[in-house]
Specification:
Length: 178
């Protein structure tokens, strides 16, 4: 256990007297993969509907890791239909994200063969994370404020039963946006 803590894989929090061990990176890895898949599916839906002018503001000020992962997946898709949306998105973004968007647009335009290594590596890590069978509280990151929040085993079972995906927002943000 100690070596895992040293490698920044686990966070230990003390809840009363019992140490509560949380697999932070595992939670975040699964969560970010799921968010970006949902975002990508939404874009696919837009393409199907022929949507031309989605308001891209919803992507601004999102967690950067999510945004960069989304861009990686868009690039990996090789789907040129995404380019108009990328152009719209670029207009409202900050410089650092704009630069990344431009790179993805260029890659899609040039139909560059995608180096799938990073993606494969990530999939492998997600697979490994999911293989840990024992139910664990997950420490998730709020998509709005970036704070960590706990997704307990009980909540996980409830969500699974209802067929819900992972919660995106912490309790605080859930309340203020509803
Ligand atoms: Zn929040």
């Amino acid at each position: 256990m100690d070596c895992m803590v040293n490698h920044d894989f686990l966070d230990i929090e003390y809840n009363g007297k019992l140490p509560m061990i949380i697999f932070t990176e595992r939670g975040w890895l699964i969560q970010s993969d799921q968010y970006t898949n949902e975002l990508l599916e939404e874009w696919m839906e837009w393409i199907k509907q022929g949507k031309r002018d989605p308001d891209m503001m919803y992507l601004k000020d999102r967690n950067r890791e999510i945004i960069f992962l989304l861009l990686e997946k868009i690039k990996g898709s090789g789907n040129q239909s995404f380019i108009p949306y990328l152009e719209l998105w670029k207009k409202i973004e900050y410089k650092k994200v704009q630069t990344e968007i431009t790179k993805v647009i260029t890659a899609l335009e040039q139909n560059n063969p995608v180096d799938g290594k990073a993606e494969q590596e990530r999939k492998k890590r997600i697979g490994e994370a999911l293989e840990i069978n024992e139910p664990q509280d997950l420490l998730l990151k709020c998509w709005i404020c970036g704070d960590r929040f706990i997704f307990t085993v009980g909540e996980q079972q409830f969500h699974k039963k209802k067929g819900l995906s992972l919660p995106k927002r912490c309790g605080k943000c859930r309340h203020s946006y509803e």
